[in-house]
Amino acid sequence: MKKWLAIFMACSLTLSASPAAYGQEGSNHQAAPVFKDLSGHWAQSAAVHMRELGLMQGDESGSFRPGAGISRAEFVTVLHRMLGFTGQSSAQFEDVRPGDWYYEAMMRANGSGIILGIDANHLSPTAIITREEAAVIIDRALQLSTGMELGSALQQFRDAQDISGYAMKALSYMTEAGVMKGYQGKLDPKARMTRAEFASLLSGMVADVVQTPGVYDASKVNGNLVIRSAGVTLKDIVIDGNLILAEGIGEGDINLDGVKVTGSVIMKGGGSIQISRSELGRVIVDKVGETAGIKFLAGSKVQELLVLKKADIEQSLDSKFGTLKVDALARGTALKLQGAVDQMTVAASGVTLNGEKVEPGFSGSRPADKPSSGSGTTTPPASGGSSGGSSGGSTTTPPVTQPNQEKPVAPTTIPDSKWELAWQDDFNGTEINTSNWNVENTGLVYNNELQYYSPNNVSIVKEGDRSVLQIEAKKGGYGTKEYSSGKLTTKNKQDWTYGKVVVRAKLPEQQGMWPAIWMMPTDEAHYGGWPASGEIDIMEMLGGSKGTGNTSLSYSTIHYDSVQPDGSHGHDQGTYTLPGGAKFADDYHDFQLEWLPGVLRFYVDGHLVQEVERWRTKAPGQPEYYTYPAPFDRDFYLILNTAIGGDWPGAPDNDFVSDTMKVDFVRVYNYKDLASWPDVTGNPPAIEPQRNPQQDGNLLYNEKYAGAVNEQGVPEMWEFIKNEGGAGSISVVEDAEKGKAAEIKIDNAGTKNYSLQLTQMPLFVEKDKKYKVTFDAKASANRTIMSKVTQFGGSWKAYSGEVNFDLTTAWKSFEYEFDMRSETDNNARFEFNAGLNDATVYFANVQVKEIGDAAPLPEVVERKPLPDLNLIYNGTFDQGTNRLAFWETHVASGANADVSVNNFRKSHIMERQLVVNVASAGAAEEVVVAQPGMKLEANATYGLYFEAKADVPRAMEIGLTSKDGHAVQFPLGKMAQLTGEMKNYAYEIVIDDGIAVAESELQLLFGGDTGTAYVDNVRLVKRGNPVTVNGYAHIQASDAWVMNGLQLEDSEEGGKHVAYMGEGDLLQFKANVAHSAEYVLSARVASGDPNSQIRLSVKDEDGRTVTQSTYNLGETGGWQTYKTVYFEPVQLNSSQSYYLDFEGREYNTLWVDISENKIKNNKFTPDLSSWQTVSVTDTTYSNGELTLQVDGGTQNWWDSQLQQNGISLEKGKHYRLEFDASSTDPKTLQAAVGLNVNPYTKYMEQPAELTTVMQHYSYTFEMSEESDFDSQLAFGLGIPVEGDMAHAVTIGNVRLYEVNPAAEQGGQPQNVNLISNESKWFSYAPEAGELTLDIKNGVLEATIGTAGDQDWSRQLIYEGFAIQQGYKYTLSFTAKAEKARNLGIGAGWLGGAPDYAFTDYYGNSVALTTTDADFSFDFEITKPGYSNSRISFNMGNFGGTDDGFNKITISNVSLKNMGPAK
What we know:
Strand content: 35-45%
Protein name: Licheninase
Number of helices: 8
Structural class: mainly beta
Distance between the termini: 51 Å
Low-confidence stretches: 1-33, 373-404
Pfam families: CBM_4_9 (PF02018), CBM_6 (PF03422), Glyco_hydro_16 (PF00722), SLH (PF00395)
Helix content: under 10%
Largest sheet: 18 strands, mixed
Family: Belongs to the glycosyl hydrolase 16 family.
InterPro entries: Beta-glucanase-like, CBM6, Cellulose-bd_IV, CenC_carb-bd, ConA-like_dom_sf, Galactose-bd-like_sf, Glycosyl_Hydrlase_16, SLH_dom
Keywords: Hydrolase, Signal
Number of strands: 92
């Protein structure tokens, strides 16, 4: 399909472009001197071609102006001439007005979706189009890319990382096809496009344009053919390229007779299209306007027919379709088919096949109808069956919906009759259906996995008589990745809330394979990001047999709730093991999920793996849980992938080559009776005991071991477990003192205290109850055992802590108590752990009893701002049992009002709003919804924001009161006039002087008017401090003036970044500048989304927009992989304040820089003030650019110069020089900054290779010399061009400004203590009460009880800072102990479920004495960095006699990044 494109790189064609010369074959375009400024120019033939097609002309002087930039309006106008856009745009743009010469073309192209606005109000018609913008617009117009391009062609360019995410698809196609090339190894996607480049590009993509009716009967066209006119017939022609039926055809007729198209046929226009005796490859029906009628007759063959918009498709008996796909947007399409269809999928509703309805989600094949007798070869259009009662008429064959031999899907809990098919993919086509699936092409992975996800690893293959999806994991990756694999998602294509999912798959089996079938929320930021936002793992399996690898075992898991200080989070996991030693690689198995409000059930082949009904989730930093059944109450999408290696399965074996995961089908069903399903909102099912306690309250049964024993000697109700090398036996023995006792004889003590266990479950333990454990025990020799009451599965949380007891040879009674602080558990387990010692142990009279309520927890007195700095809790009305947590309702006596929260679908989430229905109320204060308890500051300004509407126009009032009597001002008023449309409201609240903290109550007053009001997204935030820019200002994003809809997160480059930017969110900075000048804005940003976009606008204090720009960021490598983005300069005046508004989608912001351009007159006014020239024969000024005439005969760069003096540079600071430049002849320009007097020391000196095309150049340098307040910038023009000829150099947009050192290299602030927040310290001990931490004035005091079994059994931990690979760190502290002992030091991070693996960066130990000593350690980070790292002081068991019952004091703790490791 791409062969035709290569032909045009020499810009020569084999078909005449003259519209009147139909049928003339073999004439070549000659480089006639049509334009006087193109003689010998590389784009001459292309420009002539464009002129002959009537698409581009020269100016009045006969010049083409090849080097001039082409504006967006000019670009679109040419495309409109060629394609005839017919779109109707309802948008109104401030810069495109009726009467403008480009109005019709721009508005019609906008209506057709070809060109989009840079924002809601501007199309920017006069802006010069960039190379990547041009590629995208042409790709939208011609629709030739498929989305399956590999993108590998882009990697040949050094600046591939500069390509915006939105342009990747178009540029991948055009570079692979060869129609867009780079220069000197660069593609320059952001460079402006010249008229010459555009002519060459379009000439390479269009062979001919048919603009008048008639018969076009040339025997062959080498390239793309565009039909713009109705009434055109193509007859007996081969198109070695693509055929575009353009919008300009309108509702007219098109006839293809005997046409062969090797590429695609794009149908954008044509009311009636008849195709006979033709062979077509890919046909796309995407017609604008009325429904297209398309007939395929007389043996026509189509490889792939993709219907994107409603159409009437007819097919004769002797015609054939390979693949027929009806997209979801092609609702109401009518199919009248008689011929064969190898594979047909229907995603749209209202589709009919031969008059019968086809349900969305249908996938199958269709054989040809049986021909009627004597029908010969002439087949009329399909009519859906025989007519007139003739017995010999054709019979319509129904589609085949599934293979005849398909194994039935096993039933699950809810009968099959209750489900109806909503969507399916049986993978019966020849390629992945991209209307269903996103095929990932990314190196972004998680869990330290080793693969790159490549589309090359995903395919449809034949396995016997079935077609299956194959995901191949193999050695050989991309970039730095050693392996590659495949990943598909349905995100934003197929998303569901509730239903049944069935995936039939066969899994890989080799070591390191990690196949998964799982679901993630479509809007992951909602509910606070992973894991609080939820995850549903239908199936995971670990290949091989090392570690946790088991190819017969699958896992089904849900994840929820935020990460806790110990690294854990909420999750419930079930497992299923295939019987008889079978492996999941042996055959296909069905992995099934039933998901309904309040329940998730997982199955393998119909066997229930686990059922989960209780969960709760709280976002990081939120004070309350979201209302149940959040987070599993909104859209999730499906993911199929195979990961390689990582934290869980480990790396593949050295001899690994490849392995595959195969998927036979995916089916999703709707539950028919969902409307009658019980409402579980805010009411998770109560946890009932699985068994009741005994009459005496004991939760354990057979506590005296008087019951029966099994053949292994295990007493009734108990379980004897051997792990980690443990070996032994249990029996019930007679004891003279205790009667009966359990005896555990130990043959091998194992390597852990849990190597031998005596356990009993299920125990019912309730939250906020106190429990007491008592038992009698002895041993054959003195030894230690451990006991606990613990969670079974999940994170195995020890509810009681791990409690150690020292046994002797005599019976002793032991006891311990604990407060149950976790959620109620009806499946808890009691344990005796007897490993690590081979002495026999005996137990008797074991009891676990509830003894009352747990001690009340101290009230939390500090009310902190939320992560997004909002002071309002539950401003989105989705927390607490009734979704009104933290809000109070006050309805005065005599008033009649009802307050509630609604719940409805909005996009991929469920939207909630406060609903206040006022039937009667005399005054505003008679119906109030208030939030008390806020801690506000005196002498501070706050912004209040909310959205609101009403069923009928009415007023609403806001109020705020202070308990401590502070006066409160409302400078912008207190009244909100509500309408029927949801609108944003903003107010300013000023707290006057008084005591420092004003305990305040926000009030929303609804009385006075009747009717129903709706309120959402209430925010109250303290205003940040305005920034004053005196030459340069570096602003942490967390210090913004306004954050709306955003959150703060830890950054791997240090500090906090502002996260979760989405449409409608705002990050705003307020700034004043000390000098009126041009300023450069830059931002340090990161994104893991290829479609991320930054929109920046600068507004003055009156709200007028000074400048605005859009930057398509794309994926930067991940959410913690940053790049610095530089925006176009803006002129700011010192007389007023400005607001910098960052908006857009899917990016994180770490910091923003505002820097004054130190170059004066950088727009080159004609008088050249502030500039000097050396040996320049002439200068001319045009549109902010300076052209300098340079004679031949120079030798050194300094022989001819453009200079500016008086530039102030300070030692140790970093600066960036930027400029645009070109030359009439390629040459080297020398850019230098340095001392302007002898010895002319250079602070920066770099060559710039100029071409005939204006390009952008930038250089960053550090001022390493002493400060110089009269530095010189010099552009050295003296290096001669080839032939030492006179020539001209053009320079523009010169900028020299200060930058942050991290702007280019990234990284944490260096030599800054990362241990700075006392609240991040916490203690760890498995046993309750064995380690306590007290912090006084920055001094840590750790009081140790017993020392535990390991050195890490007692720890002080500080967590929450980033560590960067390749950097050196210094850890220092002061410490002592009451009794001399050892102290361990560790740095690393703790992984998540299921194994909570620890990644170790550094470890050491020191000997403490009774006097303070200073310690310091340097270490380099050789492993990948992590954003939530920790340091730990290990003060457990080092084998010393004084390890336990001791006190350690630690102070002056410091951890600093000392810079890159050498």
